[in-house]
Design a protein that fits this description.
The protein has helices spanning about 5-35, 40-45, 60-65, 65-100, 105-120, 125-130, 150-160, 165-175, 180-190, 190-205, 210-215, 225-240, 250-280. It is mainly alpha-helical and about 280 residues long. It has two domains: about 1-55; about 60-280, Orthogonal Bundle (MetI-like fold). The relative contact order is 0.13.
Length: about 280
């Protein structure tokens, strides 16, 4: 079908705006990467834009050689993998009954869940609760409090509601239990939704910062985001004292790329599900 002049103009403007937005998001990454690979003198002189000047890997050699940074990377990987799995598991267990028509108190529970999105827990009672549960200075404090996101739970529940109810009735007639329906029918049919929610949860866990800075004192349990903060502060101090032969900006830039690169490498493999997630639960019969 031939497009009208208005549709062609709209498509052209739409593509132009999206391309410009994409460029505006990509250029800062190239700028930081260029700084991390540039000579400190050129960085101090503000000569570096998007291409390295007098390329050197001194900052990267310093960053890669830090064992504590690799340990923090291991903490992030553990928290992201385990946390994402637990979040998907418990979110599915909660979203499924809330999507069932015969669950009479589902509206009351959903009301309570929505309230948690509007009113956040006060910091002092929250801290005392974490302390009473024995989670202080534990790697699990980075996982358990973030296990279920109310926003992701609502989206997953809406997706479950779109699945044909006749499938559940047929399974019940064949003697399938509620758990069997969930794990053998609902979840296999919800792979796109689970992949999208997994991406959302993985980003949350990978960028964990607030819980780490509030509840973690053991430096061996620092995630990458907290280690990035420590590296930026220490690099500034070391350069000011003349104890480090690198420019603090090159070290900071290399650390930022080091922290961001793993999640950027994962994203292309789940990008097709991200488009699905943009409209997930938006249409309901």
């Amino acid at each position: 079908m031939k497009s009208t002049f208005g549709e062609t103009c709209f498509r052209l403007v739409n593509y132009t705006v999206l391309i410009l937005l994409s460029i505006s998001m990509i250029l800062p990454i190239f700028h930081v990467l260029a700084i991390s690979l540039s000579d400190p003198v050129a960085v101090d002189a503000h000569q570096v834009q998007f291409v390295p000047v007098d390329m050197t890997s001194a900052a990267w050699s310093h960053i890669v050689g830090k064992s504590d940074l690799w340990r923090s990377l291991g903490v992030n990987i553990f928290v992201t993998v385990v946390g994402t799995f637990l979040s998907l598991f418990f979110s599915s267990l909660l979203a499924y009954p809330l999507a069932r028509r015969d669950f009479q108190i589902r509206n009351a529970i959903m009301f309570g869940i929505v309230l948690t999105m509007i009113f956040q827990a006060p910091m002092i009672p929250y801290f005392l609760t974490i302390k009473a549960l024995g989670l202080l200075d534990s790697i699990w404090v980075l996982i358990i409090p973030s296990t279920i996101s109310a926003f992701n739970l609502i989206i997953l529940r809406t997706f479950f509601q779109q699945l044909p109810y006749e499938l559940e009735e047929s399974a019940k007639m064949d003697g399938c239990t509620d758990y069997g329906i969930l794990f053998k029918i609902v979840l296999p049919l919800s792979k796109p939704a689970l992949a999208t929610m997994g991406l959302f949860y993985a980003v949350i866990y990978w960028n964990i910062f607030l819980h780490a800075i509030l509840f973690i004192r053991n430096t061996k349990l620092y995630p990458l985001q907290l280690k990035l903060r420590e590296t930026i502060v220490n690099s500034d101090l070391a350069v000011n004292l003349g104890a480090m032969p690198y420019n603090s900006q090159t070290i900071q830039a290399a650390t930022i790329i080091f922290v961001t690169l793993p999640i950027l490498l994962v994203y292309p493999f789940v990008q097709k599900y991200f488009v699905k997630g943009a409209t997930l639960g938006a249409v309901k019969e």
